[in-house]
Design goal:
Blueprint lengths: L9 E7 L3 H14 L4 H21 L3 E9 L2 E8 L6 H5 L13 H8 L2 E7 L2 E9 L9
Antiparallel strand pairs: 1-2, 2-3, 3-5, 4-5
């Protein structure tokens, strides 16, 4: 059983392709309510959306999004029950070729989130995204 302090607002939403917009909006609302700057809320929306779209496309058509705030950081975890992500995709650090129609999701998530941890295997994938609620260091005002 998970326990959280009262100031650690949290939610969990199961999702399919149909309700990705609702899950994304809930995450953005939590970030705004906790004071995340607007440009970072957009980054958050992009990374959470990419992770959910990947879960639907490659992880069995559904997943679960959990989000919570702790210690000035917004955490999001997107889980699916798919076959896992091939190691060659996880090891890639360069962006896909500009002409590529796919393959941008993990690269984009790693570029925009402050911290990313991927756990994957034959029973599914979990993408843990952490983003500071304050201004990003080095950001242009």
């Amino acid at each position: 059983m998970e326990t959280r302090r009262a100031d650690e607002q949290a939610f969990a939403i199961p999702f399919t392709r149909k309700n990705i917009p609702r899950a994304r909006a809930a995450t953005m609302s939590l970030a705004r309510a906790r004071g995340m700057p607007p440009e970072r809320v957009i980054d958050l929306a992009l990374v959470v959306n990419e992770a959910m779209v990947n879960a639907v496309a490659h992880g069995g058509g559904r997943g679960r999004l959990r989000a919570w705030c702790q210690g000035g950081v917004l955490h999001c975890e997107i889980e699916d029950r798919g076959p896992g992500i091939p190691a060659r995709r996880l090891d890639r650090t360069d962006p896909p070729p500009p002409s590529s129609l796919g393959g941008w999701g993990i690269w984009l998530i790693r570029r925009l989130a402050d911290k990313v941890a991927l756990t994957t295997g034959p029973d599914g994938t979990a993408v843990h995204i952490a983003m500071d609620l304050s201004e990003r260091e080095g950001a242009v005002p």
